[in-house]
# Entry
Amino acid sequence: MQPSFVASEVRMFPNARIAVAAASIAGALVATGFAFHFHKTVLASSLASPAYTRTGELLPPADYREWIFLTSGIDMSYNPRSAGTPDHSMFDNVFVNREAYRSFQETGTWPDKTMMVLESREAGSKGSINQRGHFQTGEVMGFEVHVKDEARFPDKWAFFSFDSPSGNGTLIPTGAPCYSCHAARAAVDTTFVQFYPTLLPVATKKSTLSAEFLKDEAALGAGK
# Structure
């Protein structure tokens, strides 16, 4: 939910490809191993819990922008920069449903039915009175949801990719690298709480940080 919940795995929407170099986008998509999927849009879910179609697609959360904002990153990736990577900058914004956030504050981990949204927007530099730095543009360029549904998924968590915030989400196969990356490197319950500044202190206090994350932190500290 950086979450793909990794920036390198965010798909661009078809209409967004017009705004950036086609060759760069194609290279990025090949590198991630995912392709676009087109779905018939149904009513968005206004419920706090995940909702699905009969074919297993995830309904888009209608009010995710009213959820708890966790963090924003720019050009984050958990892999070295490779040839064909787009040269434009992207912001990743992460939101979580309010019920899950309140539970995390109490327990230091995520409850069943947690939904985390990763929303990607292109970074702009020329606009209005801005003279330097970057700001987020209006168009959503990528959209993913990380869902915890213990009764539905054998490993409790699943990732869904969307063509737009109003379309249905397609389940990302469990063999995709996002699953193994989150399992091996995430700070809390397969989520990258290490990048959520308001939640990392909570997890530290509640002693819910994963052994893998603590090992990574120890190694980083030893290398300084």
Confidence is low (pLDDT under 50) at residues 6-12, 14-44. The chain has one domain: 7-175. The first helix runs from residue 22 to 32.
